[in-house]
Design brief:
Layout: H1 2-6, E1 15-16, E2 22-27, E3 30-31, E4 39-46, E5 49-60, H2 63-66, E6 78-85, E7 100-102, H3 107-118, H4 134-162, H5 167-178, H6 185-194, H7 197-202, H8 207-217, H9 230-246, H10 267-278, H11 284-290, H12 294-301, H13 328-350, H14 353-365, H15 372-380, H16 387-401, H17 410-420
Parallel strand pairs: 5-6, 6-7
Antiparallel strand pairs: 1-2, 2-4, 3-4, 4-5
Helix pairs in contact: 3-17, 4-13, 4-16, 5-6, 5-13, 8-9, 8-10, 13-14
Length: about 425
């Protein structure tokens, strides 16, 4: 009902109060998301007289008394009570009766909304998307792209505050998280937080010790394992020493998801890649800021693992066909989820808006992601020509379609508005 009032989707322009007075809404007011009346500073005309004040909305008029508004002076400023069912008159604390109207809505609005909310398909509005004006879709997609980017920037800001302004720490945690590629994001972030960069820097002159710390903290080492190779035994020995020295506590091995994952996507090589960046001192944030264009950024993540991990996907039997640590597609995902948010956050916080522009340009230059979400929207008629757009479509699906928040989606709003006015 708040949505209908806010967007003026009621059926008739001329309402009538329960005592027979004509009402014309000049301004529905501003939606209040805190305590107090539902809308502030509304302007309504009642029998030719203009009233400026607040609006309160209830499903049943009797809710006014049930919620204690008859005893709350904060509601004395209400100039109109809007209800779905008129089952009682309402009064201010001084006994004055408040004008009350029933909000009449086209039954098609409710039917359309229910049909969208109850649909079992992943994209309930797909059949109607081709009829939606392209300008509405384009503007909404652009807004969603920034909505998604800003949510990632907020995460960066939170990490920056946690690490007292250390951008290298922020980069370390962010890169680690995104090496999980969705499936193991949370586990990788826990690993990074549990294995501070300052600890790793103390041993950055030894790749074996860095790997021992990361694999040990990840809970992926078991000193009692039999038949293990020399490298694995060395890792276990190093970690046992370092864990005792620094009172370290490893993660649970069960934190890592490996079911139905291709061997090349197991977390082992991703952890080895993280160790590669730490060896000799972690300064990836500086390199990202200094990189000139997408080509140089890609080179930062085109890592060739050496030694044991040059031909292993996990501990044990070597792989006959070694592969790059990250495929080109995986590098795209790292650039989208790591580099672009770091650019934007750093640019905003330092006032270097050339970097915020650089973040957007990077997303516009990268290929769109290929996944079921993007495919569903493109099949429905929304073009996707860059990572900026694919990010917007992912935001649309996860924050609006999956949650069935159709009334808050600009496309859903358009469709529902049309049904309300039929």
């Amino acid at each position: 009902m708040q949505y209908i009032w806010q967007h003026r989707l009621w059926r008739a322009d001329d309402m009538v109060t329960n005592d027979g007075r004509h009402v014309r809404v000049l301004d529905p007011g501003l939606l209040n998301t805190d305590a107090g009346p539902d809308f502030f500073n509304a302007k309504v005309e009642i029998d030719g007289q203009t009233w400026v004040g607040n609006i309160e909305i209830h499903v049943r008029a009797s809710d006014w008394k049930r919620h204690g508004h008859d005893k709350g002076s904060a509601y004395d400023s209400v100039v109109l009570h809007v209800v779905d069912k008129d089952d009682a008159p309402v009064y201010r604390t001084n006994g004055e009766r408040i004008p009350q109207v029933v909000l009449e809505v086209s039954p098609r609005f409710g039917e359309s909304l229910q049909r969208l909310v109850d649909a079992r398909t992943e994209l309930p509005c797909a059949p109607q998307l081709p009829q939606t004006p392209s300008l509405v879709v384009t503007e909404w997609v652009q807004a969603l792209a920034f909505e998604r980017l800003h949510s990632k920037v907020e995460r960066v800001r939170d990490i920056l505050e946690m690490y007292h302004g250390s951008w290298e720490e922020v980069c370390y945690v962010t890169v680690a998280r995104n090496l999980g590629f969705g499936i193991n994001n949370e586990a990788f972030e826990r690993l990074a937080r549990r294995t501070p960069l300052r600890l790793l820097h103390k041993h950055s002159d030894s790749l074996l010790q860095v790997e021992a710390l990361l694999f040990g903290q990840a809970g992926l080492l078991d000193a009692s394992a039999t038949g293990a190779d020399d490298y694995y035994r060395h890792l276990c020995s190093e970690y046992a020493f370092l864990a005792n020295k620094f009172s370290l506590r490893p993660m649970e091995r069960e934190s890592w998801k490996m079911f139905r994952i291709r061997p090349q996507n197991f977390p082992y090589r991703r952890i080895a890649m993280l160790a590669h960046y730490i060896e000799g001192g972690f300064n990836l944030m500086s390199k990202i800021l200094e990189a000139d264009g997408e080509k140089e950024l890609r080179k930062l993540f085109q890592v060739e693992l050496t030694g044991y991990w040059s031909n292993h996907f996990s501990f044990g039997k070597p792989n006959e066909r070694p592969t790059a640590a990250l495929s080109d597609k995986s590098i795209d995902i790292v650039l989208i989820n790591t580099v672009a948010p770091l650019y934007y956050a750093y640019g905003e916080l330092t006032g270097n808006y050339a970097l915020t522009d650089k973040a957007i340009s990077l997303l516009e230059s990268l290929r769109p992601e290929k996944n079921s979400i993007v495919t569903n929207f493109t099949v429905a008629g929304i073009e996707c020509d860059s990572a900026l757009t694919s990010q917007a479509l992912i935001e649309l699906r996860r924050s609006y379609c999956d949650a069935r928040k159709c009334i808050y989606c600009k496309i859903g709003h358009r469709l529902l508005s049309e049904s309300a006015h039929r």
